[in-house]
Amino acid sequence: MPKRTDIKSILLIGSGPIVIGQACEFDYSGTQACKALREEGFKVILINSNPATIMTDPELADRTYIEPITLEVVEKVIERERPDALLPTMGGQTALNATMGLVKRGVLEKYGVKLIGASAEAIHKAEDREAFKQAMQRIGLNVPESGTAHNRDEAARILEKVGFPAIIRPSFTMGGTGGNIAYNREEFEKLIDWALAMSPTGQVLIERSLIGWKEYELEVMRDLKDNVVIICPIENLDPMGVHTGDSITVAPAMTLTDKEYQRMRDAALRIIREIGVDTGGSNIQFGLNPDNGEMIIIEMNPRVSRSSALASKATGFPIAKIAAKLAIGYTLDEITNDITGVTKASFEPTIDYVVVKIPRFAFQKFKGADPTLTTQMKSVGEVMAIGRTFKESLQKAIRSLELDLNGLASRVGIDRGIPAEFNRAEVVEKIRRTLKTPLPERLWYLADGIRLGLTNDELFAITKIDPWFLEQVRELIQFEQLLVGKADNASAVLAGDLLWEAKELGFSDDRIGQLLGVDGAVVRKARMGAGKSAKPARAVTYKRVDTCAAEFEANTPYLYSTYGSECESRPSDRTKVVILGGGPNRIGQGIEFDYCCVHAAMALREEGVETIMVNCNPETVSTDYDTSDRLYFEPLTEEDVLNIIHREQPLGVVLQFGGQTPLKLALPLSRAGVKILGTSPEAIDRAEDRERFRDLLDKLGLRQAESGMARSVDEAVQIAGKITYPVMVRPSYVLGGRSMQIVYDEADLLEYMRSAVKASPKHPVLIDKYLSDAIEIDADAISDGKTVVVAGIMEHIEEAGVHSGDSACSLPPYTLDKALVREIERQMKALALELGVVGLMNAQFAVKDQTVYVLEVNPRGSRTVPFVSKAIGVPLAKLAMKVMLGKSLQDLGFTEAPQPAHLSVKEAVFPFNKFPGVDVLLGPEMKSTGEVMGIDGDFGWAFAKSQAGAGATLPQSGTAFLSVKESDRPAAWDVANRLHELGFQIQATSGTAGFLREQGLEVTVVNKVQEGRPHIVDHIKNGEVVLVVNTVQTASAHTDSLSIRREALQKGLPYFTTMRGALAAAMGIEALARKELSIRSLQEYHCRQV
Fold first, then answer.
1. For the chain, which terminus, N or C, has the lower number of CB atoms within 10 Å?
2. What is the pLDDT of residues 638-660, one digit of tens each?
3. What is the DSSP letter of 528?
């Protein structure tokens, strides 16, 4: 069937900000869909609140609305643009929930908008837990015994039927948000309240636990003629009970018999037909009882999902792109496979390699978070690796994680055998205990269990991980022990076949060196051949991902390394540049860096240079096979990158776009003689090294807060005393503020030095004077070495001391006077020229009492680049790439930044709802996973939109609660007064209330938690408060007021923990009272500026 002619324009709803459970895989699917639909001549209208994605680039859709994804705003877009159709399956759970809301409100009917890709009935049937259960029973498939509850009493009745352990799953949520496992009644009651609060429909499914069963997923596609193909089976290494997003997963499935696989396929076809997903991709999850093979259906996602991104990258089959084409009427047999150029999409992919995905976690960022893995997803990113065998793939994935783990490193120090004084019995007991609960490090403890003699049967009984996987890990450990045994004769091992056997098993040079007791460089030399003429017996080879197990030739160079006999890389002799990606998403290094890498690839293509992308993150646009000319899906380690450079011989390598990951490779690569494009590694070191940086500022006559470096605890106490408290302490060389803290007194400092860091001459601790109540500024500039353009100056809404990645900010600044803005521009230019920056640079400043202090300078692309680019309408990363190729800013016609007539506010989005019990206070350690953007002609409205986009809509009436530290009381009066004039009632705790009353405000006094009932938390629980403002100074006050902040979070109330944030909120509420919501597309904003 050819494409539909009754529709001309299509609305796509994006997935909003990056959160745990809904990450950049939807940037990838949305971007593919936009491209595919425009290719077919449709007008594409997009709404997405996330500025960091490629998807919201003004070139990708015809009309791009960076607005909050709320029903009011989406309706306004529909009213303004009058699309013919809405495609809801590309924006994760956000888009599905918004679509269902529009259907219920009758908006689609009112404006005559057709749903394509999935009907409202199909979405309801798959997402509503009760409807799905009935649908499965109709087609004779088993689902776990369960019941649906809307309140505590119903839940208790179902529990009697289901028993413990009970699985709790809220409806219409993503990444298992609000889900958990209850093992007793007390836990159950606590978890039910949380789950009901997390479900947008207040519906929770309670089901019998299948903990310990095997878990599988199938990626399925269907077209309008009812053709169905299975793209890929995925097997979870972790058994049921761990969310599939937190499991190590493997494709293809390794332990299914052919009969079991066929049963699963048949069931998948019945399910997709019964649910009625007309076109596009779906993901179906199965549980299999390891004792008797009983199969149970867990759930189905009627949309492109996280697993679709993995399956796309694992097979080379672009699920989102094809799903978009199916939605507009094509059938699978009409769409050509890009990779082979001869087969059609109805030809199921086959793979002749193994893919392993390992998730990446961030528990160290959240004090008090429970690291146990359950049915609610907690990982912040993932890596994928491709190899010829499971063993090779697993080891490549481990080193892709960037956790300084080269392979299955021992957690108890027994890599090279068991020392004499080792207490074996005690450690075995500890390992058994640790393995009982699924934790992020489980795989490494499993390896230690094997080293200490636990059998596969014992390990299976404890972990329920399939014996096949246990045996694979055991064989790796046995090979490690073989190498350790030959350490006395390391040179013979490196000259013989054992080296190549180790490489085939995926061992890195460093790990082989560790086991043999030699340096990794020695192994590398042996592998590469020492002299110029000495050619080693074998070398690394590259294979192509071709979707068809070599049955047809692959046109697209999508490559992975292995140690085989023939190499399929066939490098060209064109001028080429290697771009190093950002690796796995994590807090502090997210999708913004991928955005920069993709822009670099686009710029190189425009300049006629061949682009080679190296990355290992399956969720991103950079690892799409059509983003660059050649894609190497490889770990970003010195060894793997040098192998690629050795094979490709590029003109140079780009490091400044992928965040800290490629920067860590700057020195090793330049030592190996690789040309680094853009700012030199020397300049990067000058900015990152504290002492050299201080000399640089002195030379330029710029100011910095007083600071010192401590190489011991005594020295730290001495420096802090001299600078005077409060001080900011942190280890040297960090990204995302790891282990940074504000310390108020000596006791605090000693505690930090004891628990967080070990100061040593090699790793000093940095101590800076903390500029309290200063305004923090972020600035981005681009330089060609002669001309510097300051592209954007952002004023942070939270005061200095909150990590810049966690602070909301406004571009242009909303309170700074012009003279200060000009002074910051002058300092930026001086810094960029002195450092010799070629490309992008970001710097952070603090302004206190009209004096500008330099906080830090990063001569690379930063996380604000996409936000600034979209705010001013200039693709900065693209221009930076062209500058690195030798073009001047004059040639590119960019010598002055446009001055936008509108205000853009960026707000951070946090994962606190995934970690019950963790405090939501912000500090110098970064905690946000994503961001949203609000744009308007008015600061108040832009801020209000950013809050709505982040999920906390500002109230327009009701009771506001304030409890602030003494120094904040004057500012609290301003906020309270503004709210009072808008008709809000004001409640405050005794100290704050006393001050406000003296100023003549009417205030109701409320009890603090320890002052007796009813106290403030009771009021919040009872829904009597609509806005919370709570600032604290000392650590003890932090814990006193923790329950206030947690309760506000659980109730979904807007809460502010800084006075500047609260004031911005008051300005936002004033704007809402003053005028109606108005929206404009990005394209319109960019036309209007001077």
1. C
2. 999 999 999 999 999 999 999 88
3. H
